[in-house]
Amino acid sequence: MDISTIVAGLLTMAILSFLYRDNPVYKMAESLLIGVSIGYTLVIVWTTTIVDLMILPLFAEGKLGLIIPLILGLLMFSRFHPKTASLSKLPIAVMIGSGAGVAIPVMLEARTLKQISATVNPLVSASGTPDIAALVVLIGVLCTLSYFYFSREHTGLFGQTAKFGTWFLMLFFGTTFGYTVMSRMSTLIGRMEFLLSDFLHLVD
Question: Which phi and psi angles does 63 have, rounded to 5°?
């Protein structure tokens, strides 16, 4: 058994000790995890972003256009001094504006346009048979939208349609929660398998 397996096993057991109660061993492992994660992230950002995308292209390759993002990045540090704190608003505004400009079209395409296009699929397949999946999606969308239509009282047939839409919402929330639980259980099973086989050698 190598030293990395021993360390990983001990830290895993330290994290799992929280199942008994909050204790100093768990807090130590939690702080170590956070510290190592932050340190690893800083190293990755320094090497792959600042060095590879800023320092080397600017000073080694002579790409002078990178002076502008360099100045904007340095202005972020003006936040630490009260007299120059207002200068940090410029790079923050550029970062938020450019980020929104990039993110909005992508999110609009992924979360709106594709969702809309998925609800207008042909109800009849190429072979002439009804497409049950497309029909269920269409009914689910119409019933769910009727639930969120508050300009009319939810009574009669419209009320039944809105109530049926809540069932589609519950199915969606249930499957999402089930997927989350399954992913967490998969992580737990992987950790337990590591503890019982690689660390404790209780199973082969």
Answer: -85, 90
